[in-house]
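Reader question, answered in our methods column.
A reader sent in the components of a multi-part assembly and asked whether the whole thing could be modeled at once rather than chain by chain. We filled in our standard form and ran it. Here is what they sent:
COMPLEX SIZE: two components
ENTRIES:
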Amino acid sequence: MDSALIPEGVKRCSPKVFFFWTLPWIALLLWGAVSAALCLLVGLNQTNMSDYFAFAVWIVVDLAIIALGAGAFFTGFLTYIIGKKELKDIINAAVIIGFICYSGAVAMLGIDIGQPIRGWFIFWHVNVHSMLAEVSFCITCYLGVLAIEYLPIILENREIKKVRTLRLAGENLHGIMAVFAATGAFLSFFHQGSLGGLFGVMYARPFDIRGGFYVWPWTFFLFILSAMAAGPSFTILCTKLTEKIARKHLVPEKAFQTLAKISGSLLCFYVVLKIIDTLVWVFGNVPRAGLSFMDFFKEGPYGVWLLVLEILVFGVVPAIILITPSARKSEGWLITGCLMNCIGIVLNRFTFTIVSLAIPVMPFDKFVSYLPTWQEWGVSVAVIGYGFLLFSLSYRYLPIFPKERELNAATK
Amino acid sequence: MEKKHGPAKGNSYGMVIDLDKCTGCGTCMVACAAENNLAVRPDESDKQRSITWMRLYKVTNGKDFPYTEVSYFPRPCMHCDHHTPCVSVCPATATETDPHTGIVSQIYTRCIGCRYCMAACPYHARTFNWWDGYFPKGKGIERYLSPEVSPRMRGVVEKCTFCHHRLMRAKTQAYTEDRRELEEGEYITACTEACPAQAITFGDLKNPEHKVSRLAKSPYAFRLLERLGTEPKVYYLSTKDWVRKLGDNYLPGEFKPVSTVKAG
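And here is the structure of the entire assembly that came back:
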């Protein structure tokens, strides 16, 4: 039925199977659509956010997917600027994952703000000192860059390619992709950093406050580094998942190994800096605020275990797995390492958002708890549904893996 | 006795709240709500989402009867002076610290409702409009709404403005009388005016002749979370050490009772 659209020489499931495959993701999207409509029409009272939890699960998901989507800019940087040729086999997937993550995050932010119609005020009445303004500028511009990077992949569709103008446009865009890769890397560097800066500059929140360099708190640099470490791992995970579901090889092992090695090395560097940062914070910033480290965990379910889990279990362990050549060459360990790396970064973003807001600062203030409503979950899981749907459609109709034909011919 | 305001370089309006006088009656909260058109909800039990510019915190010394002591912390916006935590983070410049008055304003029609300011404020002085403003119909409440204060819409953040409209009113009055400066007591907040125990004093912290500036220098004066460096313009007074100790976080042995400080 849709065979004319499927890339030449590759095998895809029947339209019927594909239709059933998309159903759960469409269901998630519908759940998200109902939730989003309620939040936009009735108001944010549909959530369990409160004056204590001004940021909640949506911000955690936003920060997490933006970090995980960093694979796009970093792989682009490695491919087009550093010249890692083997990554050309995975760059398309990285770009699509990045596009999904960023467009999902921007859509969620549109629902998260109380007055979405005024969203453009950030640009019009900008406060240049605000980290959030920097985040908004860079994310919006970078989403545009990602769309431009995604466009030539769409233009490679068999039917679209038949139109001469579109084919030429696609080829020309491919030719100048290094420019967009460089722009993307520049923009990403700043917004990943600003997302970290967002917390580091809250100097009246001792759980977040960090020292820094000039106007940038240390969290600025740590967020960039952690996103660069986790992004490629997420790209590997998504591609491996596609391979498992499609039951075929899509990307040469060399590309995975290069990405995993870089991801692991950066994670090692990050974990060392994160441990130093944590120690400086525990023995410097925290006592200066009149608190001891354990004061943060007097009430509520959060504790030191969360930091141990984030830094040691999901930081040091995946770093060791990914930098050990023999470990990352085994598929099981590679996937475990990448998964743990991604979980670590999600935990980090969770801690900075939820835990820091949950901890009272005034001595007579109380700990209050927060659990998201089904509307909040709805909007959050809709991003997952949207991601699966867009990636599935891209995989089915676009030649996103250049080596797919070659690899599977070899297997046969 | 009324005195002339400070020099032309500007004012720094601030407040001193005497916790030894405060009885926790809540009149300040009610006066504030009435003065500033604070919307209510049919069910106000969810205090984490109700609008309050002035909130009263009850504190105790933690001892058992008969040694129990109780005090109250009325908490308006602190109008932080140094690198105001909420102002510096707002992406849309919807909140500003006026260098001429020291008052931290909130522009409701510009606020996009991102709530970053709320996350940055350690005092929980900012509240978000989770619902549309509601004023029960047919109960005469609409007749009490102040035309000087704009009501807020759903999805924006609001907070204490030190009754900024009263400053405007006082200034207008002064201009009509051909005066450039305000006199002490000419501009005070609704909570200051309403407090039956006269626990709240309001005025220009920069003017040495104003009572607030003298009270703020009292050895018993302290500010909430002072060591974080936010430079609040709301001071508290208490002769009780345990109350002053609750004003900030201290590591063991760090807190110095006033008697010790004086002796030292």
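What stands out: The longest strand of chain B covers residues 13-18. The beta strands of chain B are 13-18, 55-60, 70-75, 95-97, 104-106, 126-128, 157-159, 200-204, 221-222, 234-237.
Send us your own complexes using the same form.
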